[in-house]
């Protein structure tokens, strides 16, 4: 009996619809990583307004924790396989050594945690909180990865410190907060429209 339930859940988790949704969000991440290549006006004050965090949050809000994390994992492995889907059309296994690869890894956790929060609180404020928590996870994982990458294997400037690493993240912070709140509102509405079964 228990074995049958586990098999049913596994089959549901990897249904054709799940694969379609995962592929869709992986494609959106590819576009979001290089949106400024198609819309140069999205570079404000030298800071590119990418939509990766926005789509990673949406993946968790709309698909739920497991499917959202799966979509982000698919995106990461497509890039590691060599497809130019990361920022600045980067890709390949060597991307792991990039100081910014931690942000790509963080998207998996962003989608999972945001999805977990809205699975417990499906109200609008729950979606906004989930989006902001997801953005915080993105910054926490990505910035720490960047700091240790520069310290241990990348060429860091002599004056580079942990504080400097966080100061580098301040310029894009306002736009990420705004986009996260919009992701929460949009995700709440889209979940009702799509009625994705988690």
Question: What does it look like?
Answer:
There is one protein chain. The chain has helices spanning 2-13, 16-33, 35-38, 52-63, 65-80, 101-120, 124-152, 162-168, 173-194, and strands at residues 43-44, 47-48. The chain has a two-stranded antiparallel sheet with strand order 1-2. The model is unreliable at 1-12 (pLDDT under 50). Helices cover 71% and strands 2% of the residues. Helix 6 (101-120) packs antiparallel against helix 7. It contains 9 helices and 2 strands. The two termini are 22 Å apart. The chain has 198 residues and is an all-alpha fold. It has one domain (2-194): Arp2/3 complex 21 kDa subunit ARPC3 (Orthogonal Bundle).
Number of helices: 9
Structural class: mainly alpha
Rg, Cα atoms, Å: 17 Å
Major sheet summary line: 2 strands, antiparallel
Number of strands: 2
| Chain-averaged pLDDT | 86
Strand % is under 5%
Q: What is the overall shape?
A: globular
CATH topology name, in short, is: Arp2/3 complex 21 kDa subunit ARPC3
Poorly predicted tracts of residues: 1-12
Second CATH tier, the architecture = Orthogonal Bundle
Distance between the termini: 22 Å
Helix content class: over 70%
Structurally, the number of domains stands at 1
Task: Identify the CATH class.
Answer: Mainly Alpha
What order do the helices and strands follow? HHHEEHHHHHH
Order the strands across the largest sheet as they lie in space: 1-2
């Amino acid at each position: 009996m228990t074995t049958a339930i586990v098999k049913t859940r596994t089959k549901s988790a990897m249904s054709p619809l799940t694969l379609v949704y995962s592929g869709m969000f992986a494609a959106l991440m590819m576009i979001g990583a290089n949106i400024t290549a198609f819309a140069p006006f999205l570079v404000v004050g030298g800071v590119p307004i990418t939509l990766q965090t926005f789509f990673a949050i949406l993946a968790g809000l709309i698909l739920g924790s497991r499917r959202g994390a799966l979509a982000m994992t698919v995106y990461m492995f497509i890039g590691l396989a060599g497809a130019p889907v990361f920022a600045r059309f980067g890709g390949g296994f060597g991307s792991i050594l990039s100081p910014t690869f931690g942000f790509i890894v963080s998207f998996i956790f962003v989608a999972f945690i945001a999805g977990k929060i809205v699975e417990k609180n499906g109200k609008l404020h729950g979606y906004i909180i989930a989006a902001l928590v997801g953005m915080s996870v993105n910054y926490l994982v990505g910035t720490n990865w960047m700091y240790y990458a520069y310290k241990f294997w990348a060429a860091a400037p002599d004056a580079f410190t942990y504080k400097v690493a966080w100061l580098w993240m301040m310029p894009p912070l306002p736009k990420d907060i705004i986009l996260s709140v919009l992701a929460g509102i949009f995700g709440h509405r889209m979940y009702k429209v799509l009625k994705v079964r988690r």
